[in-house]
Automatic annotation (TrEMBL), chain A:
Residues 135-411 form the NADH:quinone oxidoreductase/Mrp antiporter transmembrane domain. Residues 844-967 form the Na+/H+ antiporter MnhB subunit-related protein domain. GO terms for cellular component: plasma membrane. The keyword Ligase does not apply. It is found in: Cell membrane; Membrane. GO terms for biological process: monoatomic ion transport. This is Multicomponent Na+:H+ antiporter subunit A. Residues 625-688 form the MrpA C-terminal/MbhD domain.
Automatic annotation (TrEMBL), chain B:
GO terms for cellular component: plasma membrane. This is Multicomponent Na+:H+ antiporter subunit C. Its main location: membrane. Residues 110-169 are annotated as: Disordered. It comes from Garicola koreensis.
Amino acid sequence: MLTVLAVLFAVSIVAPVLHAWWGRSAFYILAGVLAAAFGWVLFHIPQVVGADQAATNDAPNAVPAYVVEWIPQLGVELAFRMDALGLIMALLVTGVGALVMLYCARYFPATERSAGPFAAQLFAFAAAMLGLVVSDDLVMLFIFWELTTVLSFLLIGYSAHRVFARRSAIQALVVTTFGGLAMLVGLLWIGQLAGSYRLSDILAAAPELSGTAVDVAIVLILVGAVSKSALVPFHFWLPAAMAAPTPVSAYLHAAAMVKAGVYLVARFAPGFHDTTFWLPLVLILGLATMLIGAYRALRQTDIKLVLAYGTVSQLGFLIMVNGLGTEDAAVAGLAMLLAHGLFKAALFMVVGIIDKQTGSRDLRTLSGIGRAQRPLLIISIVAAASMAGLPPLFGFVAKEVVFESFYSYAEVNGGASWAVLIGVVIGSAATVAYSARFIWGTFGSKRDNNGQPLAPTTIHATPDAVFLAAPAALGVFTLLFAAAPGLVQHLVEPFSTLFDPAAPGVEPTYLALWHGLTPVLGLSALTWVLGLGLFWLLGTRDEVPRAVPVVFDAERIYRSSIRALDNFSAWLTSNTQRGSLGWYLFIIVAVATAAPAGVIALTGQAVPGHMILAEEPMQMVLAAVIIAGGLGAVWAPKRFMAVLMVSLCGWGIAGIFALQGAPDLALTLLLVESIILVVFVLALRTLPAGIWTLNPTRFKFGRALLGGAFGLVIMAAVAISMDSRTHEPVSLEYSWMAYDVGNGSNIVNVTLVDIRVWDTFGEITVLAAAATGVASLIFVKRRDVRRRQLHEVPTGSVGRILSDKALSPRQVQEVKVARSFATVAREAWLVAGRTLAPEHRSIIFEVVTRLMFHATIMLSIYLLLAGHNSPGGGFAGGLLAGLAFLLRYLAGGRYELEAAIPFSAGALMGWGLAVACFTGIFPLIVGGQTFQSFVVDLSLPLFGEHHLVSSVLFDVGVYLVVIGLIVDVLRSLGSEIDVRSEEEPKSSSALGHSIHAQTTVGVAR
Amino acid sequence: MTINLTLLVLMGVMLAVGIYLMLERSLTRVVLGIILLSNGVNLLLLQTGGRAGRAPLVQDGIDAQEYFDPLPQALLLTAIVIAFALVAFMLALIYRSWVLARQDEVTDDEEDRRVAQAVGAYDPEEDAEVDTETSEFSDPSPDSASDLPPVISPAEHFRGHNDEPEEDR
């Protein structure tokens, strides 16, 4: 069984390909595959019918079953089992499926391109439905159940360009998924109660299961069945689902999917029809659905909707019969299920043919089709008469036993069960009436309001034999099963053995055209008479039905409840998430403050004992300076002043590091803070200096309170955790490890490049990523923009102020004086100094840069190489070199920077990472471990003895990455913003111009 | 372990000021707040090294206890450089925001604001009255409803669509 299902799903996946090759003829192949599956099911008949239906899988006389372990921890298995019920459903699913596929081969226009996915979905549905009816595991059952729901959603929404189709698809999905979820709870619950998820085991254990829990679980399962089979109050989704193409309506919404609910009821009925809520639920909802559906069917003017409401009515009927739980009802229920599948699918197919050939389904405009289309008329009369329960058709045979089972049930139980019988008779009479209305509405010749005959509807083309084959075949089966009811009896009887008769003495009924002159035949005759009367009274009216009062309109109730849900979630979201990111952050920090505070308060910590005020008085002085800087950053009225204040904090902390005994940190932080300061100014120079914010932030007090509380809580947490620390630090081992294994005496540096080298390796990767991020934010398209060659740049062109309009008279004077010096020929201190506009040049700065640059680079290389044994290393060296390039940029502008470092930043970082990788991988090649360091002793003439440690090479990688990062930042936030600022005035944006003119002068001075 | 009160208080102040600035609307202040916050965290790491000691440069005859703990120093060194990369990235973000929108403030989340407007809004996908179609094979007429903008606030709706059937909700 698993193989068959796998093959079917595989075919559904290739269906679009087949459709692309052969167009709609691909449906022939799909029909053939389903017909083969039908044959495969037929092949099982002798084995299934002869077996004991109730026997568990390992019994000798059991039905065919197939079990594979799937999730043994959860007791979930791929369990399949084909008993009589599953067999009948499987025959219906594959048989009608094959015919629907055949029908599709003509239904879709030859040019339809989107039918490929449709074919796949429809075929996958057939596979899922087959899986559903042969599943013996609750979880598998649920998975297939939801699979059919999802596929139904996709198929209803086939015409996705129409609002109606989209809305119907979502509605069907929401309603059936809602039921499916309730069912899932019920299934898992019953599985837990029974101690097994195997369906056959649960049903075998059903007599021992009782109590409220079982009752409630069964109600939940019934909710799933009721929603899937479109019973009141969920009936509205099925008529709306008629937005689907007609083959879908014929297959999913008449023969197969909506029967899943009926199947579930029939599946659980043998074990659970005597639970407390089963019969009330099944009978009341079923009867209500039958009557409401039939009444609404009589009022429709769209022939497809007549059938749709008819289906709703019949589903109610089917659930009642199948849920009744007597031996007769089991026979009747399955026979009726089969009969309904045959006639309703055929009728939908007829509607599809008429819709395709005439372009309308409106019974007020259709006229004279019966005369023109005899074959269609004959097929329809057979199917509709079977629906009405007229002899000699299978519908009559089935309905006879249905009446018989209700009649004998009422005889035994009396009271309310007579009312049920009366309701069923009325419902059946209404069925006769809407069957007649369907035939009259579709095929009759009508007159308009003035009594004139309506013009016969134009028929574009007569349907060919292939188009008619599917409904005709269904009609043939309707006749065949009526003529030889023993065929069906043979299949259904084993299932009915699972039930008791209504009373011990009652003889089991059987399927036959003639039972003799019984009260039941009288009931049938009564329904025909009543039905024709009803048709005469109501059936030929053709006004549009009045809207149902709002309270009773299930669809409106559904829509308003969905709407209320939408509104509630929008209301909740808008009240918790108002859109202010600052507020979200406030909440997060508040939680991060309150939670540790609560823990500290509840656990009652002692005040730490070992405390010192400070290591030395200098620390307190520095702390005071830093705190002043921090508060200054809050109060600073201007942007760059605040930046300076923050830098002050950084420098102060570098001092603290130095006092604590961490020279590497002090050096690195000092360099970083200096670079950050410059980069800050570079990046934000185009932003207005004075305006902090146009709408000042509120809640100053609240934020201050939160900040203070956060600081205090972290202080307390740090004090407590440090006070409770008892172990020696691991780093006590680092000193000998660094010296003896890492061959370096600077423990921090050896830690970075050897002991914890993976950390550092990760970090430089992050640096490269961040640099790339900065560059891509500024350059947007590509990082290494080709600049002009230095000699092509005209002297004094960079940053020249083109217009004096925005300047004050005093500034104009200053610019004039500066320009007068530009003509003076002088020695070039910097190669690109001449490119700067005269008003931007500072000769002293150029000279100082000239003197310091090379010395700084030398120092950085010294820091890099000596870092292994004394303060320094790749980070400090790289930052210092970066600072040197920063100096060149500030003194000589962007062309100076290009001249100073003629490599792309990306290449620098790439090489740095490559070198670092190399030091990691090289030891592997020579037989060591990743990043293992080794020593090379060199004795060079002139340089003397040298003691080279391989991990220094890793530091070179770090050095290159850090330089690359700084150069990238300088080129992005420096050079590129320069270029943009100079271009901006030309684009004559009034705002941009004034801001730019002021700020460039500001930077120049 | 001995607690250094000066470092402890300094850390607290840095964190407090950092949080205060981070909750501002101005992006520049947010970045400054993050720098100060990372300063505070750096001080936290520093304190885990315990009492001050000798610089961790190995010399003969000195006990490992006497050096200032090198492990937090290694962590701090990476933290400092990463913080620099982070700040550079945020500055680039601020510049971009300024170039694109002349905006250097934390703006409200428009999507969240839009959710607030959706309460009771008219959504044609859900609410428009649609005629049921009586044929699949008539010309697929484009939906009249889909020409409307997706969500209209109730006020607008009542201005523009008074003829829509509203009374059923």
